[in-house]
Amino acid sequence: MLNKTAPMKTRDLVMVSLLTALIVVLALVPPIPVPLVPVPVTLQTLGVMLAGLVLGPGRAGLAVLLYVAMAMVGLPVLPGGRAGLAVLMGPTGGFLLGMIPGAMLTGWLSRRIRFGLEAPGRQITLNFFACLLGGVALVYAFGIPWLASVTGMGMTKAALAVLVFVPGDMVKALIAATVAYQVARHIEA
Amino acid sequence: MLIEFQSVSFRRDGRPVLSDLTFRLSERRIGIVGPNGSGKSSLARMINGLLSPTSGVVRVNGLDTQTHVKAVRRQVGFVFQHPENQIVLPQVLEDIEFGLKKRLPDVEARKHAAMQALSDLGIPELASRSAYSLSGGEKQLVALAAVLATQPALLVLDEPTTQLDLKNRNRLVHTLATLDQPLIMVSHDLELMKTMDRVLVLDDGRLLRDDEPAAALDWYRSHCG
Amino acid sequence: MMQGLYVEGETWIHRLPAGLKLLVLVFAGWGLMWVTHPAWLLLALAAVWMLFWMARVSMRGVWRRMRPLAWFLVLIGLYVAWADGWLVASAAMLRLAALVLLGLLVTLTTPLSAMMDVVTVLLHPLERLGLLRAERVSLAFGMTMRMVPELYIQWNQIREAQAARGLESHPVALIVPMLVRTLKRADDMAEAIDARVDE
Questions:
Q1: Which residue of chain C comes nearest to A18, CA vs CA?
Q2: Cross-chain Cβ contact A84/C103 below 8 Å
Q3: Is the Cβ of C172 closer than 8 Å to some Cβ of chain A?
Q4: Which of B46, B92, B211, C105 has the lowest CB atom count within 10 Å?
């Protein structure tokens, strides 16, 4: 986390930058079919969840903030090569900004309890809930009110509109949870 | 140029990586060989203070690498194995300038020094190129230029040719031969090691042989081949 | 590969300071939220359209990029029409169109460097508080832009390798090696920076 007395170490800065780059690439590569979801989905949310799980709350917040900042500044880092303020002003603006606290919450929750690497079931379950609450619930908590106000529809109607995306996001959360665990095992080896 | 290792040991995650190394290096071209896992990369990283000994002292021209890290790094330039991970900014010239920020605060002087570094290696045309579009050989030369721009007194190279194809390996070797600086090179490339003044053979964290190239490499081939 | 969306031009809109454009955008965004009657929103949209015309931005390029978003807007419009009636729906679509297009206009007429200058100015107070250094933020931007194309190449390499085992569409089989290699790069890069830069 940012600390007034301790400057950010080189390694932290590099990790943040590289995870941001990973989010960009996952957002831009052609969507791959995800189990149980009828349409191929972009992996942007997956990247954000992974940033949370791998970097922890402080650095993940910075990584996603950097991602959003790059989009705002005009770089084509959003899915479809989109960028800029147009997306922020549009219906999905809240979801985009919500990814920042979302990644931080995911990072914070996933570090609450430390299961060893010998307890995969428990670690992956924890990761999964961390992704669900941070990468999905909190993001929607920002996205839905924004959608509601920018379109003029009520909150409940807006919530209903995005309900269709929730199952896909749950699958992404499971994928992120599994990947994070397997990567941790890899590094240990 | 004098590198001293005094009873240096290094442990990582509780496991011994280097054990009780003691030697003095002052020759112009020094090679370090050894099987994978012998600790030679860790040894190289002790010379510029990227790693600190668990016990013992490493000195570069009398400076302790643990207490005088900055001064040591000003004297020692390090070239790594994977060229693409050494170039950290998108455009070649700006990456070289990046390493010179503190040394040369004036923007024009910095740009000039960076261009000079590229010209010295015969690659001025790469200045405005994007790093990702370079070939492996070009990347390694750019990484070398970036290090040489900081005017180190000594060059340490960790397997600089391992990722390169034959043509680019030859180009790099030829370039290294033209440099003024003394160099210490870790490598699997035994042909290259033949051209050194002195070769150290490492295995399992211990210095097993320290000799002129022909003898050391013969020994290496028979014992670790 | 990482080129901004800016399109070169010499109009007064291009020459407006980036900070001013962003402020106008923020106020327009906030202001339009309060306007509910479609007639006024139509006026707003017409005003934005006129700005586009004054900026002489080629609409063909714009349409190509915004097409998916346009369809998305239509979908939303239909949904709102079903939920709240046509009056609200047309207001919603007009408002969204005006906001999105205004945002797009700012992006298309403001070069990356000008935007980065704004970012630097915004970071200034944080720098005074000792929370961060603008230099490091600039480095972070640079490193990210450096690595995006490399990671893209890495992704394709992994897909190819996994395709040999029939796994080219398996998320976990692709992303685990992607992340492992990316973390290794981070280690290498941090070492390279520590070795080269005198801080």
A1: C144
A2: yes
A3: yes
A4: B211
